[in-house]
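Record pair follows.
FIRST:
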Amino acid sequence: MKIHRFIGEYDLSKKEIEITNPEINNQIRAVLRIKKGEKIILSDGKGREALVTLDFISTEKITGLIDKMEVKKENERKVHLYLSILKKENFELAVQKAVECGVSSITPILTERTIKTGLNITRLEKIILEASEQSGRNVVPVLSPILNFENALAFGFAAGEKTIFHPEGEIYQPDTVRVASAKTASIFIGPEGGFTDKEIKTSEGAGYTVASLGPLTLRGETAAIIATYRAVQGI
């Protein structure tokens, strides 16, 4: 039987825990119809999670007793995705799947060919939270503020591995020795029209490797998903 997981600002240091968030309360009580005596998993979004047996359920609050609490480590390799803003549904899909693939942070970026410039941050944060819950993650990825391309390159420079994905680059084949030693990676995905030649030259001058994901032309959201998975796994 599946045990449902919920991420929030829970104090997992106490034996008894209280859930007062109306949205989570409604999901437990009315949507999932979880009953008194059943178990759920609560995570604080920072690496700690607890198995909880519910002992009281009402419309105002839900309480439970912690059966077991543990700290779970995620992949030591931290991948930071710098993703050009795409059309609404495409960007949201890329964010959702990147979280499921294990990304550590997502930074929306503005490039020369970016068409859409606005984002619904509240909705994106909800997508990130729900994707984290669904995929069993204990640490919620960070959604960083929007940056222009040059500033994003500067922020991503500190990573051990720095890759900008572009169809004309060499096929992405991580050096397993280098990947093992690089605990952080910055990966850049362009907009619908791709990065301009000027942006590619700028990134090369800033120390980034230009790489492609193969001979096929991928949509931005598809490239983001594949690149994130490969960067996290180092394959």
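SECOND:
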Amino acid sequence: MGIGLPIALFAVVTLSLTIVHARDARAFERRAEVTTARIVSAAEDDGSWIQHVTVEYPGGGATRQGRAPVLDPREYEVGQPVRVLYDDSGRVLLDAERYDAASAAFYASALLVGGALPVLLGWWWVRRVRRIAGGTGPAFAVQVQVAELRPRWWNLRRPWVTLLPLDAPDQPVGSYPLMGGVPTVIGGDATGEVKGHVRDGGLVVAHDGRVLWPRGRLRG
């Protein structure tokens, strides 16, 4: 299917970005100065998924202003004193938020759950399906139908593969959603074969002249 390599590359890039951010966060904490600042603005920004507060703090013999990331700006009030970390580049981080809003652990967890973990699961799924398709296990002759279906109200309408016994075409064995990007012709019947666990909840791969890769397990 040609998607194993892109998935692996995406996982490598995601983990690399996590490592780079972790090193950057630790380097900032090592070089940063610590002082007491005052909140001058704590307004929510609906246009950004990372919220900030504006603080005023003494540094280098002058009074500076900077924006510090926070989880919830509503927890802060204008005029409230807070401890901050800052460096000469103008980067500011609230001491109380360093392990929540801008820490390496926060971003590493977000990237792992939202990026690397689904990618690794997808890579595992593709490898398993390819092993079944290319394995030496038994193949069963079936009638194969491909049609746009929506078996449950929560399913998106997409091509589904339905498997029917040759001797009982009115009693479907089950159906599974077709993996995206697979060229297919909607409608019509074809005689083909299926490999895998041909039962409700089993993982199968059908072949009717082309491999019909499954997006999910067989549903009775």
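COMMENT: The first helix runs from residue 4 to 31.
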